[in-house]
Amino acid sequence: MSGVKRQDWLVAWQLRARFAAGLSAMYATEVPAYSTLVAVAAQVNKDFAAQHRNAERFGSLARVTAERHGAIRVGNAAELADVADLFAAFGMRPVGYYDLRCAESPIPVVSTAFRPIDPNELARNPFRIFTSMLAVEDPRYFEPELRARVQAFLGRRQLFDPALLAQARKIAAEGGCYADDANGFIAAAVAAFALSAEPIDKSWYDELRRVSDVAADIAGVSSTHINHLTPRVLDIDDLYRRMTERGISMIDKIQGPPRADGPDVLLRQTSFRALAEPRRFRLADDGIAEGTLRVRFGEVEARGVALTRKGRARYDAAMSAANPADAWGEHFPATDEEMAADQLAYYRGGDPSAPIVYEDFLPASAAGIFRSNLDRDPVAADMAGSEDYGYDVEWLAGAIGRHIHDPYELYEAISQEAPA
Ligand code: OOG
Ligand code: NI
């Protein structure tokens, strides 16, 4: 970075911005369609800003253009605790709990999102990583014998170099590090999420694929990897059209709220399948075979105002209608003034011109994004019932030894502050 001297002290947001940029550069070399997506997204944002006076109401154009979220998947709570330690060095805390086993099309994971929580930190760089953990204790997916072998496999692998984690803990404790040390730290952190070139044990991978593609992606290989990196756009319908025109076939719809006349709410997302990437497989006779896997994809998103619990209940009602777009007006007013007056959405100091942007995820969309990129549905013995098999937010917080922030409490606190 220009103007940064070796002895300069870099704080969490500066490290986070470099981490996000480093992952983005790596992902662009790994998944070329990502570069197309980023270029089209930047053009959409520029055009939107030129045509709309209040284009920056959900964040500055600089923030939105640099904004990304990533996603990773890990196998168990010990791995998730290491991820939490690593991301803490970048000022990213666990926020929210998502149980994707409860989705309409269940996925055998529970998830949280690591992100900054302070409004100033978010404004500087809001990088977030949706992090999923395999629900290996859930008997609907894993019978005892397979579970034991998955746990043994996970217990043997090491996702992160202990020296990297030690450095992360030190940086988190000290609130930053010298520029001199930052380069190596960030390069090592980025490299930890590269797609591994190590041969994949084919019979083990295939056995897990019979449970679910996600189980194989998580526990069938010896490392984790960034599986998508999502830019943010100001007009996702426009983005969808432009990508389709370029011959990139997107999933058949935009997930989340329909396009509406009133204020944008929550999060709208869409994705496309990445091309198959070459991978090497180790066969039963110890021979190596070349093959391909399609485990990664492209995604893009648009963000709107954060909804209160009351607003979220309205959202769920609107989305359960046969045609959410038609039903939208019955559940939501058309102006920020009415949204604020009805306490449906969060505004700084209650000022309707100061919407608070939604910084989190939507479980139905997340499951939809997972699903749209899988070849087949996971096989679960019996999906019916609401049994969580011991997974809930308190369990997860205890298992990683960290408070998992409640998104509503964070938005509520920001809404008490005076408009910026
Ligand atoms: C995560 C999918 C969820 C989103 O934007 O909702 C997600 C994954 O595929 O690991 O990233
Ligand atoms: Ni995503």
From TrEMBL:
Keywords tagged on the record: Dioxygenase, Iron, Oxidoreductase
SMART domains the record matches: DUF1338 (SM01150)
EC code(s) of this entry: 1.13.11.93
Enzyme class per UniProt: oxidoreductase
Protein name stated in the entry: 2-oxoadipate dioxygenase/decarboxylase
Pfam families reported for this sequence: HGLS
Similarity field: Belongs to the 2-oxoadipate dioxygenase/decarboxylase family.
Molecular-function GO term, any one: dioxygenase activity
Keyword rRNA-binding assigned: no
Cofactor or coenzyme needed: Fe(2+)
Protein's organism: Mycobacterium spongiae
Entry keyword Iron: yes
